[in-house]
Amino acid sequence: MVVLRLDSLALSRSRFALSPFAETLAAIVQLARPYSEPWAVPWRERHRPAFLARLAEDGYARGLVELISATKYLPGHLTLPPGGGMETALEAELAEVARVPDEVAVAGLRTAQEHAWAGQRLDWLGGRGHGARAAALFREVWDAHLAADWPARRAGLQRDVTYRAGLLAAHGWPRALHLMNRTSAWVGTDAIRFSDRPGPDRVVGSDGLLFVPVTAQRSSWLCEAPGRPFAMVYAARGSGGGAGGDGDGRALARLLGSGRAQILGQLETPATTSELALLLGQSVGTVGGHLAILRDTGLVDRTRVGRRVLYHRTELGDRLAAGPGTG
């Protein structure tokens, strides 16, 4: 069991951050594995053929992707903590990965192989410049498969941060960290159980801990580097959206109309009008009109947080979105 033990200043200095590189890593795993999370199926079907064709042309890229998709230990040069807070830029992260010394990268790859499922080989691991080669692959994946979707994905990640920041302000870190991943939990008053797999405890010092959301719902890992704060990558709440408890949302769409049903499903996590517009690919005016109707019918309400107006489901909206048989 891996436990993160926090010193007396760690909690007060912990904060949220975004990482386009971590989002790319999670996307690579989604594209490489033979199954997909339901919410990501349309995106995966559009992009997977070109992604696999790219791997077929490059043995190094294919070997690296197969390894990180089949290991319980991600290589250290691919799990560096983001350094730019909520404004972390992909270019800065790629540059840092490219600078990782070969001996460090190779050591991490060999450890990843030791923790991988049977059959993972390293016969593709030749030559030099492993950090730069990984950075080049991630750059290609970002440009081809993620860049166009990033504004909507970023809006969803910011929604999660807003939601958890609200819980933090009202209830403290234990509530804000609730259900960040399938195995994390608060332990006592000064520790977080990060994983139920064997591993050494980590001590989080006075720099605090970074919490980094990604859209992939099965993704969770720990980032660490000498002299840097630890970063806990976790699945953002409600990243996949959804439009009701009837499985695919068709019944709710027939009742409310597809646009309003989509919005009600997305409001499992509070969001602004512009965030919803980005997530759903609709105009701000269209989304605003739907929100006005949902608010008039008592299914959603709104709250001002600083300069932002967040819409959220009411109790009635929660019950309707959950579907029949839920009380």
Question: Any overview of this molecule?
Answer:
It is a single chain. With 327 residues, this protein is of the alpha/beta class. Helix content is 47%, strand content 13%. It has a 4-stranded mixed sheet, with no helix packed on it. Strands 2-6-8-7 form a 4-stranded mixed sheet. The longest helix has 22 residues, at 150-171. It is globular.
Q: Please state roughly what percent of the residues sit in beta strands, choosing from under 5%, 5-15%, 15-25%, 25-35%, 35-45% or over 45%.
A: 5-15%
Count, helices: 14
What summary fits the major beta sheet?
A: 4 strands, mixed
Number of beta-strand segments? 10
Alpha-carbon Rg, integer:
21 Å
Structural domains: how many: 3
If you average the pLDDT, what whole number results?
A: 87
Structural class: alpha/beta
Strand order of the largest sheet: 3-4-1-5
The gross shape turns out to be globular
Compute the separation of the termini in Å: 37 Å
State the helical fraction: 40-55%
What are the segments in which pLDDT stays under 50 over at least 5 consecutive residues?
A: 240-248
Topology as a string of helices (H) and strands (E): EHEHHHHHHHHEEEEEEHHHHEEH
